[in-house]
């Protein structure tokens, strides 16, 4: 009913604009339809006010609705109101919560005595706001760039004996994608059960021919919220940004790399692609697997969490603590933002961040500024050239306040930096699919892994230092001298920060 009402109002606004500006007729008729248009906008503004957002967000959307006829209303309808109230994924969120409570078996009072003070600070908070437990019997290995990641993926897929569960935001039908599909088909012919989940928007370039090939081989293929559900379905803007591979419940992959030749650095328009992925073994794999299984059930109704064979945990020799956390519209609102905030606020010595898109909320910005003022070294590493106009200039719009607080900002110049990494005090880190932006905090389905005292954290530190060699520090004096046109582009892009 709500969608029908929104469709009716959209059509009514379009008719009003046409009659007022383009149709021939009496002035009184044009006036009536003009007043009708105003009434719809006022009704929308009133509904917006009842949502009790922050004053600045409310005023921003009021300006958009008034200053951009019809287009402003459409933009508000399909982006401005999306992440509020949480009604769109209410059933999935409730079911997933019940499943997490059942399968996670969290300790009531976990022992954090072996952790350092800043780690205890974060781990205690993470334990209270997440439904997944911190795992100590998990091994992790960092994979730098596509040149390390995809050979490892191919090798592990070859070893599959029982099942392969694979999920990607972007999966292309290019050379790399077809090679993986060929391998999956061959494993399916050997008797391995393969389930393949792809995002309906991110993987638009996945050809129907390849989908049919997989289905013919017995692979179960499903799309997450495909386009066929229609433009007027608000869920269109919610995307599954997760990248997960589970092999026999024993091996799990997660990180920033999708499937496409650009992630190997073979796209001449993009050039070198800097990214970070991770492979895990042990208890943490089962948490990652549960995230896949819940998404799988949502799209096709097949409940596999009741299958003890698929939910069996295989402990591994671990050298630290691993915590796998899912976030998105199907979890507690803003949980990834809260965890990032906790990481930052618990830091005592250093905060190193690498992200392709830096569009943080006010809480994250405040935490970074306060940390820098306390003497904590805060470094932000972003790409010199981004893959989108809005994301590039919205990111730069936050530079002035960060620079004034003494935060070090570096531009990565070797190519496009796509990794999503936070390193705290050199011994605690986050790696996964979530960017430090509003879309990852509120709209996308994401998954991150938090690492404490693992050897993989040391690898992340070493790789971050290597990336610094390929980067140039943004100098405050030079940045403040940028021209009016640059500042205008930054301010314009920042208007869209809520959906970037």
Automatic annotation (TrEMBL):
The keyword Membrane applies. SUPFAM superfamilies: Phospholipase D/nuclease. Residues 236-263, 413-440 form the PLD phosphodiesterase domain. PROSITE patterns: PLD. Gene3D superfamilies: Endonuclease Chain A. Its EC number is 2.7.8.-. It catalyses: 2 a 1,2-diacyl-sn-glycero-3-phospho-(1'-sn-glycerol) = a cardiolipin + glycerol. It holds the Pfam family PLDc_N. It comes from the Bacteria. The chain crosses the membrane at residues 32-48, 60-78. Signal peptide: none annotated. Keywords: Cell membrane, Lipid biosynthesis, Lipid metabolism, Membrane, Phospholipid biosynthesis, Phospholipid metabolism, Repeat, Transferase, Transmembrane, Transmembrane helix. It is an enzyme of class 2 (transferase). The keyword Transmembrane helix applies. The active site is at 241, 243, 248, 418, 420, 425. It is a multi-pass membrane protein. It is found in: Cell membrane. Belongs to the phospholipase D family. Cardiolipin synthase subfamily. Catalyzes the reversible phosphatidyl group transfer from one phosphatidylglycerol molecule to another to form cardiolipin (CL) (diphosphatidylglycerol) and glycerol. This is Cardiolipin synthase. It comes from Fictibacillus nanhaiensis.
